[in-house]
Structure formats: structure tokens, C-alpha cells
Amino acid sequence: MRVKTMHDGRPIGIFDSGVGGLTVARQVRKILPREDVVYFGDTARVPYGTKSKETVTKFSVENVEFLMRHNVKLVIVACNTASSLSLTFLRRCFKVPILGVIEPGAKAAAGSSRSGRIGVIGTNATIQSGAYEKALKKMSRRLQVSSASCPLFVPLVEEGWLDNAVARAVIATYLASIRARRVDTLVLGCTHYPLLKKAIGTYMGRPVMLVDSAEEVAREAKVILSANGLLNASRARGSERYFVSDEPSRFVKLARRFLNRQVTCVKRVT
Description:
The chain has helices spanning 22-31, 53-68, 80-93, 102-112, 124-129, 131-139, 153-159, 165-180, 197-204, 213-227, 248-259; strands at residues 12-16, 37-41, 74-77, 98-100, 117-122, 144-149, 185-189, 209-212, 240-244, 266-268. The protein has 270 residues and is α/β, with parallel strands linked by helices.
């Protein structure tokens, strides 16, 4: 792939139904430290995982429209549910590159699996959509995909119960069937789940590779920006702006857990 030499100082736009997408924002800051970031968390309408495809798509369009008002050069849909249900429609509606978290995660899982047995965990909507299974099967028909919805993982993370007795019991309940199928790779198909990585890894066992979609999508974002001459040429560290549709104080509290540092300025928008 030929790399263009142009440069672009516009920000990267990231949206999620709430705070989970901060795991993506954290990886973007790590892999693309010079890029400015505009993050929108739709905290007034979270969760997306229990809503219909039509509703999630409507919300996603509105979220991208908000980011476009900040002149973003790339949009990352940092929500597995929105990526699985609305990504194709968003790409038809907007001219900027739009990147979801499904394809990068599936690509990494397919590349790391030795046995071809891959597990996927996510919200009810993500699992029911079959988005990861479709993406994986497109890469190789030999892959055997086992899926499980884990709706209690999100409240566990937001409560800060990452590796206590309750978390371990819930993990064992949800993942018993996947472990029984002897998968060698497990996709963490929700942006909250990387915070449970230690406890999930302990339960699944050392040979199982855990794929963090947040990390993979940040790598893919760098590839897209570089290939299209959209990287920021500045030598300074990029800026960050955070917006939510409700409860900025709660967002600030949870952001510390997701980013491992304090976020001081969060604006509420309608």
C-alpha cells in the first residue's frame, strides 16, 4: 500500500453509548499520541445493547453528526453494538472514513488462533447480530466460533468489581460453555471487557489468547490515516475533548478507571 505524504491536523472523532469507548480512546492516545481526539459518550441513552437495530442506528447517525460539527477526519465507532448494527449505514451516509471495532478484532482473532476455535463475548445485541461470526467466517470458513452474551459484565466494570468473588462467579457462569469448547482465542467484544481481562484470563487459562478490540481498532486507525495522508504532523502531544449527553460528573468518575488518570473537563451537550 502506497503511503501518501500529506498531513492533516483535524481531530479523530470517537463515540460510544457511554464510557466503555474510553478503552478505545486510551489506545488511540497510546498509538497515535500526536492526534487530537474528540470523544462523545451518549450517556443519556445508554445502554445500546438492549435496543433495536433501528434505534441504535438512529442514535449512531446523530452521534456522527455531532462529531462532524467538530470537523473530524476519521470516526471510530467505539461501541460493539453500534458497530454490529449500524456501521454499514453510517458508511453510506458520511464521506469521512468510519471505523468500527468488529473487523479489527475479528482480524486479530483469526490471525492468532492456532486451532481455529474462537470464542466471542459481548452484549446481547452484538452476539445476536452475529457480526463477529460473519466477519470471522469471511476470513476463513474453517473457523469454529462459539459466542456468549455477558450482560452483567458492564455493571461489574462500572461498579469497580473487576476481580472479586462476585466478578469471578459471574465470569465462570457466562464463560463455562466457551471454555468447554476448548477455544484458544477469545474476543472481548465489548469495550468494557478489557478491564476484566485479568479475571477472564485467569478463568480461561494461560493458553487462551484474549483479543482486545480497542487495541486493534487503534492500530487500524493508524493504518488508515497513514495510507490517506491524514496523520497529524505536529510534534506536540494531541489534545482531548470530552462530551456527554448526560451526567458529566459520573463520566468523570468512571473515566479515571478507564483511562487510569483524571479527566477534568467534560461538557454536557443536548
